[in-house]
Description:
This protein has one domain (about 5-240): Jelly Rolls. The longest helix has 4 residues, at about 5. It is built from one helix and 15 strands, in the order H-E-E-E-E-E-E-E-E-E-E-E-E-E-E-E. It starts with a helix and ends in a 5-residue tail after the last strand. The strands form two sheets. Strands 2, 7, 8, 9, 11, 12, 14 and 15 form an eight-stranded antiparallel β-sheet that branches. It is an all-beta fold.
Amino acid sequence: MLRWRWGLGVATALLCLTGALGFASPASASCVENGSLFWGDATQGYAGTGTMQDLYVREHAHVGTGCETNGIVAGGTSHMSPQNGGGALVEIGWEDLTNGSGGHYFRLFTESCFASGCNNQPYSSGCASNGTTVTEKVRSSSPGSNVWDYSYACNGGGFTSLPNSGGESFSYANPRVETFRFGPASGDTDFIKDDHNALTHWDKVGDFHSNMGDMVCDLGVNGFYGHPNANPATSYTTVTSGSC
Length: 244
């Protein structure tokens, strides 16, 4: 969960479009924070040292003026969440934003949180564009380290590093991935659709595993679910029906 968005009075989130489909006014738009869906490695527990995935950056359906938060419409992340709680996390992700005039744009971001607060950093990149596949990786600098490194790759290319999180208050965490979006609780059935592919993680001793575990539902997201391609899964697709 992105605590900086909680701080803005928004429900759970962490995680941009071209072509306006027409704005609804804030008064007439059915604007509800739909929160996030998470997929975590339940068998790994809180002993992970990193996670990586391929995410398709896609333009989401326009949801109208007032149906986004600080311009954010949707997105997704690679995410590590520790057992000691306090809203703690480290993650790298992409966001779909609107400029308020019908145009949409994208950006990458990193975020780290603990009880003392959060640090969110946006980045411009060729990966941050509609139709791009971005491979996102967040990993501790070494097993047992409380410094977490962020990196990304565009369309299967080489990795680019972003500034690390600095020293966090945890050194191991549960590997997760996330889909988030804002807007009406019902309407465009394509608005929610997202794919997480090639899900992988590192265990406590740094060994690489090419699967993830069970879905972890944020029950604030009514009517939207995620389906794995297998269990344990190497990919998940967000859908509009099913069960957690």
